Amino acid sequence: MLGFNKKTTTKRKLIFILFILTASLATIFLPYLSWPRDISFQNLWGVASVCLSGTAGILALIKLMTRKKNKYAFIAGGFLGVALIELFSLFSALPSTALLWMLSRILLSGYLLLSLKAWREGEGEQKGLKPRVYISAAISALLIITLVTLLPTYDPYNPMGPFGRPIELTAVVLFAAAAMGYYSKGYWEFKYFEFWLVLALLALFFGQIYMSLSQAYFDGVYYAAIILKNLGYLFALIGLLMSSWAAFREVEAEKKYLAGHTKGEAYLKEN
Known about the structure:
Elements: H1 6-29, H2 39-67, H3 70-89, H4 94-114, H5 117-121, H6 130-150, H7 169-185, H8 192-213, H9 220-263, H10 265-270
Helix pairs in contact: 1-8, 2-3, 2-9, 3-4, 3-6, 4-6, 4-7, 7-8, 8-9
């Protein structure tokens, strides 16, 4: 954790603004970009998604064990559930991956939105939700995989105005709500993890916007959505790593202080 610092807060606000402006302006140029029109190239990004989301979920579990905050249970459940779906999508046909994308986005955005519940409960003792969260995330992921396996071929492209895939807008709303919730919470001003999580939510929000604007498989906006999805996972992972690093530093500083205090060294240094 960082102390309150106006310069840090201003810099972080500027990063949010620059990211939003860059992601918004990019929609002008993305349709003109050319990408390999091939499922194997998409699967390379899929492998990265599995690794990033799975690692983020595991680190969130570690944070839960040390911080005992329910928000990490929801974050871990969401990322691990999505990692399972992402892994299954690597072995699925292209029409199935479209449905898996939509449902996995709803799962992740829903769990990240639910993670705000811990904030509403306060920073004190929180209700034990951990088993229910993990079980529900696992069951949700398995139900999604089963549903996609049993359903007939699904075509996500059903143009409505500028949106080639309007069905993706449901997750857009959920990611926007989660991003606004964590921004309103204000902890991003002084906590590493929450700053990076807001950035992750912005990346996931714009990734979902891009996918809703896609007019065909493998167009420029389609791949930009996949890249931003992975960027969102990466930002969440960076936040968890930096938060863990900060926690280790706090523990080491406390150990040194206590060792010095018991030896009388702390008193001598202060005087």
